[in-house]
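Note to self: keep these together.
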Amino acid sequence: MSAAAERVGVTELYASIQGESTHAGRPCTFVRLAGCPLRCRWCDTEYSFDAGDRLDIATVVERVRALGVALVEVTGGEPLSQRGCRPLLTALCDAGFEVLLETSGAVTLAGVDPRVTCIVDLKCPGSGESERNLLDELAALRPQDELKIVAADEDDLRWALAQLRGPLRATAAQVLWSPVYNELAPDRLAAFLLAERAPGRMQIQLHKVLWPDQDRGV
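Structure:
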């Protein structure tokens, strides 16, 4: 089977405004792949755990092209849990798109096309999945990659800062700090970052500001 004919399970495919990362505010097409081996406590995309629609990679690329947006993010669930994710990323790059991958930090990045910008989570203890972090891979992220920290409370913040000053001190990725929606007040996160002179930048989920009553397609 050719790479273009390989199939992936797709939960949804749509154009919206990028709500997170250093690309926040840009028009972006999202390809949400189905399935995830993690069960983070505050997951807001549990609907992606189902199998999704099985589409061949060529069809996915054509649907992305039809939306006419230059920036594409492959997300999930955990997109790398599907065998077809890596060839899909390469096919999107070959088609001329600027490609982002949002992934959990719990599945290896080995084999991901180097043209892809990887946005990788550092799972804090409050998520219930901190034991899954592949710290060696997070430490090896490149300057074009991004390390996303989602914190539920000050314990998470202090734990994450200890990782950045310890096993992750060599990472070249841009560090992004986010509060868990409706759990950690954004101003508390801002105060912590200022008090601790923490590396990186703060972000909030722009799509939840723009479309607070919508869970899908945003």
